[in-house]
Design brief:
Layout lengths: L2 E2 L2 H9 L4 E3 L6 E5 L3 H11 L8 E3 L3 H7 L7 H8 L4 E6 L6 H4 L4 E5 L4 H9 L4 E2 L14 H8 L6 E2 L11 E6 L4 E6 L5 H8 L3 E2 L22 E3 L2 H7 L5 E5 L8 E4 L6 H17 L4 E4 L8 H12 L3
Parallel strand pairs: 1-8, 4-6, 5-9, 10-11, 12-15, 13-14, 13-15
Antiparallel strand pairs: 2-3, 3-7, 4-7, 5-6, 9-10
Helix pairs in contact: 1-6
The protein binds threonylcarbamoyladenylate and magnesium ion (MG).
């Protein structure tokens, strides 16, 4: 099993143009040299990711941002100062150094500076930034432990850098400046709550459901376990599915189903986000016939939790 904590080994493989799984505070990423198209292609192959879905480029310094971004829209400086390093991805106009494969041919690039110490150490050891989507087969639940990555991609990649369980547990929030709308747009709810972002740059516009590849992270079915997911009032759903073995994802209450995943008995929404994806994976691996999930309170990271559950429940 290619799991370890050797940053130098991960760096050496990345320099050779390999794709390596790395920890971040949000979810594990499958990383490659963002300036090497052949290396980046390995990410798409391992994940079976369609090439219309662009990647996020990870940096450790503002100097690297200058290599990637042709210009910074108003407000970008303030956002980076306030939220980096951390789970906020900012979409910026790209330079010619960024290969088309990374951005799916868009003229913008998604950039983020992770706060996970191992990710930062690895990035600082390298001469290039790292393109990395979540390290899961396309469309499936994101990995929040090294073992999650090994379970699905272990045979396809040479190394998984183990940085422990992810502290945030849902992917980064993605925002971008729309030149046409002259507003900052929210493309994906995530690990940085909307409220503090709005306190820096004012009200966010919510991205329209637009055709690909303008907002590809907005694919309707995503983050999805193999089993059907149904969202609603758990008590009524359990009555409606009384004959079946149910797995339940809830915030604080144990509903006494066949399998119960209470994400935070203490009612802490950050803890709930941290536990969400591992809980979905456990229920998917259990003998439950279907997964029932309740709607979480919408403030803070609750918005990201509800977004992931909604996509996990979408028709495939
Ligand atoms: O927390 C995260 O964001 C994790 C870790 C590994 O950093 N990464 C991640 O990547 O979740 P993933 O698999 O969601 O893929 C990146 C998403 C795409 O699906 C797309 O929605 C969005 O980022 N994206 C990337 N470049 C974009 C662009 N130029 N315009 C709009 N959206 C873009
Ligand atoms: Mg993903």
């Amino acid at each position: 099993m290619p799991i370890g904590t050797d940053i130098e080994q991960a760096a050496a493989l990345l320099r050779q143009g390999e794709a390596v799984a790395i920890p971040t505070e949000t979810v594990y990423g499958l990383a490659a040299n963002a300036f090497n198209e052949v290396a980046v292609l390995k990410i798409f192959q391992a994940k079976q990711r369609p090439s219309f879905d662009p990647l996020i480029v990870h940096v450790h310094s503002r100097m690297q941002v200058e290599q990637l971004a042709a210009s910074l829209p108003a407000g970008a400086e303030a956002l980076m100062a306030r939220f980096w390093p951390g789970p906020l991805t900012i979409i910026l106009p790209k330079t010619d150094m960024v290969p088309d494969l990374v951005t799916s041919g868009l003229d913008t690039v998604a950039v983020r500076m992770p706060v996970h110490p191992m990710a930062l150490k690895l990035l600082a050891a390298l001469e290039f930034p790292l393109a990395a989507p979540s390290a899961n087969p396309f469309g499936y639940v994101s990995p929040t432990t090294a073992q999650h990555v090994a379970d699905q991609l272990g045979s396809k990649i040479p190394y998984i850098l183990d940085g422990g369980p992810c502290a945030v547990g849902v992917e980064s929030t993605i925002i971008g400046w729309g030149a046409e709308t002259e507003r900052w747009t929210l493309y994906r709810e995530g690990g940085t709550a909307k409220e503090p972002i709005e306190s820096v740059i004012g009200p966010l516009r919510i991205a329209d459901k637009s055709p690909l590849p303008v907002s590809p992270g907005m694919l309707e079915s995503h983050y999805a376990p193999g089993k059907p997911v149904i969202i609603g009032n758990i008590t009524s759903l359990m009555k409606a599915h009384a004959g079946k073995r149910c797995g339940v994802v809830s915030f604080t209450n144990n509903f006494g189903a066949a399998h119960n995943e209470v994400l935070s008995a203490a009612g802490d929404i950050n803890e709930a986000a941290r536990h969400l994806f591992a809980a979905l994976r456990r229920l998917d691996a259990s003998d439950a016939a279907l997964i029932l999930a309740e709607v979480f309170p919408g403030g803070g990271l609750g918005a990201a939790i509800n977004d992931r559950l909604l996509r996990a429940s979408a028709k495939r």
